Amino acid sequence: MLDHIDIKVRHLEQSKVFYSTLLAVLGIAASYEDASSIIFSDSKDYIWIGEGIPKRVHFAFSAKDMHEVNAFYQTGLACGGKSAGEPSYQGDDYYSCYILDLDNYLIEAVCRQVN
User: Fold this and answer.
1) DSSP letter (8 states) at residue 33
2) Coil, helix or strand for 102?
3) What is the maximal distance between C-alpha atoms in the chain?
4) Which InterPro entries does the entry link to (predicted)?
């Protein structure tokens, strides 16, 4: 159902220790780190944690194919959402769209098996 979640934290180093310790209980470890972010992942999903002002949560839903991404986008607009990014390629194997829901939460549909 969920592909990934993005969050912003005020203190990356403190959050790194917190999430490293907590997620280790579930067998989830850091898979990427740079000066301003860290990613924890398993074989399918991930959580991206970036340093900044906590202000939003980003939900990314898994889509089966590009058609589902396109339908998600059109349906989101029809239901009162606002475009935050039309369906497009974000990389060779990443096709997604972004909608702001009724409360301005950023939601995304992503297909990773683009052909």
Assistant:
1) E
2) coil
3) 42
4) Glyas_Bleomycin-R_OHBP_Dase, VOC_core
